[in-house]
Write a structure and sequence with these properties.
Blueprint lengths: L2 H37 L9 H17 L1 H45 L6 H5 L3 H13 L5 H57 L8 H14 L4 H5 L4 H27 L6 H33 L12 H13 L1 H15 L37
């Protein structure tokens, strides 16, 4: 291997590393914009990282100021839940005791032949049961066993009355807690309203703010020197164009590396420079034509399709650039043929009255298309 070929290989390696590095940065920024546009279309993929940090700072400040009401709201909710649980348990216990007492009273009334009004029998409160027990206690001639049962029922009805009074106290306590909860909830809701208003300044669809913030922080933390985060604030059209150019250069390098390793004719420094520029030009031209074809199809079919830069998938854009870079000569020849076809009439090429220039150095004409398919033109 000659020193010149070694130098060419070093230049190719450096160019590949540089193109890969820049492509990775631009692609990550463009992919971030595409993801943000999918999450929140109203942003068009554009997020201000400085404004995002400022909003985060203000949100943290508001959350700190409202930490007291938020904690109190949680505590009140827990107290209400505990009261409800205690009330349910006490109500279940009271119902069981009430049912047992009603059965016992009914048995004694049956044995004593006491006729009970339907309304009185339906009254299962402690006061109603107490009246029925007092009626039984005042009845003469009760057997000793029934008298003992009446005495036990009096004790039980007093306990039931105490339980009902405790339930009333819990209801009053719960009502006070609910009133306090409404007051605290109003303070928390006001803080949340301020937070949502701040988040809307960055992401109009503020319900997606947390996800967008996470994506932005991940990009910024993994971005070398913040380059990707800086690029992500550029317009999607500019990033897509730069991405196509870089992928065109990458495609050219994918063509040059096998040529450097396998082609008998050595790759020259001039060929590297020209091929890189030619690949980027071919990629940009093919990218423009592809978008123009999509737009033309949309107009001719009457179907409005989204063709804004924010909606372009970066993987598709990269594929277009790489293919155009690898096949830059074929792409350029294809564009030339399509362009010539536009200016032909009736399928016959237009004639020119200007004589074709002749070469003063040789009698052979150059390749058609200005050397677009001449691989030796830049070697």
């Amino acid at each position: 291997m000659t020193l010149y070929k070694f130098s060419v290989g070093v230049v190719l390696a450096v160019a590949m590393v540089a193109v890969l590095g820049f492509s990775a940065l631009v692609f990550s920024s463009r992919d971030f914009q595409y993801g943000v546009a999918q999450i929140s279309p109203s942003t068009n993929g554009l997020i201000s990282f400085a404004q995002l940090d400022e909003v985060d700072r203000q949100v943290v400040q508001i959350e700190t100021e409202s930490a007291g009401p938020r904690g109190e709201q949680l505590d009140v909710e827990q107290q209400i839940t505990a009261l409800d649980t205690e009330a349910q348990n006490a109500e279940a216990t009271a119902n069981d005791a009430r049912a047992a007492m009603v059965g016992a009273i009914a048995e004694i009334e049956t044995r004593a032949n006491v006729a009970t009004a339907e309304s009185a029998a339906a009254d299962m409160s402690a006061q109603g049961l107490s009246q029925r027990i007092n009626t039984l206690a005042a009845r003469p001639g009760l057997p000793p066993a029934d008298q003992q049962g009446v005495a036990q029922l009096r004790t039980q009805v007093q306990q039931l009355a105490a339980q009902e009074e405790a339930l009333d106290d819990r209801s009053a306590e719960r009502a006070a807690l609910v009133a306090r909860q409404r007051l605290v909830a109003g303070q928390v809701a006001e803080a949340n309203r301020r937070i949502f208003a701040l988040q809307q300044t960055v992401v109009p669809d503020y319900e997606h703010y947390t996800r967008v913030r996470g994506e932005a922080h991940a990009l910024a933390s993994m971005s070398p020197l913040g380059v990707s985060a800086f690029l992500a604030q550029g317009h999607p059209a500019l990033l897509s164009t730069v991405l196509v150019l870089l992928m065109g250069a990458l495609g050219s390098l994918l063509y040059l590396f096998p040529a450097y390793l396998n082609r008998p004719a050595p790759v020259t420094m001039a060929e590297i420079v020209v091929r890189l520029i030619f690949g980027m030009c071919a990629a940009l031209a093919f990218y423009v034509l592809a978008n123009a074809a999509i737009a033309g199809f949309s107009i001719s079919s009457g179907v409005q399709q989204a063709t804004t830069s924010a909606t372009l998938n970066p993987f598709t854009v990269s594929l277009v650039g790489i293919v155009a870079g690898v096949l830059s000569e074929d792409i350029a020849k294809w564009i030339q043929d399509r362009g010539r076809g536009i200016f032909t009439q009736g399928g016959a090429p237009a004639t020119s009255t200007v004589a074709a220039p002749t070469s003063s150095n040789s009698g052979d004409d150059g390749p058609p298309g200005g050397g677009l398919v001449n691989n030796q033109a830049i070697s």
